[in-house]
From TrEMBL:
Gene3D superfamilies per UniProt: 2.40.40.20
GO MF term set: molybdopterin cofactor binding; oxidoreductase activity
One Pfam family named in its UniProt record: Molydop_binding
Keyword Iron-sulfur listed: no
Keywords from the named record: Oxidoreductase
Native species: Methanospirillum hungatei JF-1 (strain ATCC 27890 / DSM 864 / NBRC 100397 / JF-1)
Top-level lineage group: Archaea
Enzyme Commission no: 1.2.99.5
Domain Molybdopterin dinucleotide-binding: 7-105
InterPro entries: Asp_de-COase-like_dom_sf (IPR009010), MoPterin_dinucl-bd_dom (IPR006657)
Protein's name in the database: Formylmethanofuran dehydrogenase, subunit D
SUPFAM superfamilies found in the cross-reference section: ADC-like (SSF50692)
Length: 134
């Protein structure tokens, strides 16, 4: 049996991300568009996650805190989605299966509420992932 907080992650481009990129990756629009995870409403309920609250997403190669929202697209239970960008890149496995392209979709993650954590902005996230202080 698969533990309740294990999910299959899909990352992909989105209209929201594309529009926000025109404003720049440092913009509020980009932050709002890309620092979210879309989840199935029943999965959120099962984990005690309220919409628009922080969650910790972990994969085999990293972790990131993002804001949970009910999926804008149809997501079956056990699936979740983060739009491609700085936040998704923190958890995308580096495996390429000899293609040279990371595995952007179909990889396992765990998700848990993180009410005591903040979603970092682009600079904070990049600096912390590199172990650099400003």
């Amino acid at each position: 049996m698969i533990p309740d907080n294990h999910f299959i992650m899909i990352t992909q481009r989105s209209i929201e991300e594309g529009i926000a990129m025109e404003k720049g990756k440092q913009s509020k629009e980009y932050f709002d568009a890309c620092s979210v995870i879309e989840m199935n409403e029943l999965d959120m309920l099962m984990l005690g996650i309220e919409e628009n609250t922080p969650v910790l997403v972990k994969s085999e190669c990293g972790q990131v805190v993002v804001t949970a929202i009910v999926g804008l697209q149809i997501l079956k239970p056990g699936m979740c989605h983060i739009r491609q960008g700085v936040w998704a890149n923190q958890i995308v496995p580096c495996r390429t299966q000899s293609t040279g392209v990371p595995q952007y979709s179909g990889f396992p993650v765990t998700i848990e509420p993180a009410r005591d954590r903040n979603v970092l902005n682009v600079y904070e996230l990049l600096y912390s992932s590199l172990g650099v202080t400003r």
